[in-house]
Automatic annotation (TrEMBL):
It comes from the Bacteria. It comes from Pseudooceanicola pacificus. Gene3D superfamilies: RutC-like. This is RidA family protein. The lineage of its organism: Bacteria, Pseudomonadati, Pseudomonadota, Alphaproteobacteria, Rhodobacterales.
Amino acid sequence: MPDKLNPQGIAAPFGAYSHGIAAGPVERIVVTSGQLGLAADGSLAPDAAGQARQCFANITAILAEAGMTAADVLRINAFVTRREDFPAYMAERDRWLEGVEPRPASTLVIVTGFTRPEFLVEVEATAAR
């Protein structure tokens, strides 16, 4: 199980994540490409919450293919196109990580856009077992 790294000498995380994660030795590492909110049938939710939910569903499927779960995730990198979508993304991330301890390291960046204007969220994950 990874160890969370939240030193007392720095400000506490302001969300449900760890400042750092230490893991090792590891048997297998999985790094996902950025996942968009596209379902298998090509459909796309019109809002950031729905797209984030699908991003995490896609990551769940990738992890399962490698015999892993959200509990194996060390780091999440996420990107949203609108600052106002920050809370919706965070709620979906926290729902996906419910019961997972330690929480992975996590970064959220606001970007100007993706390859298609209807894409609002992209999420990538790094996992190890």
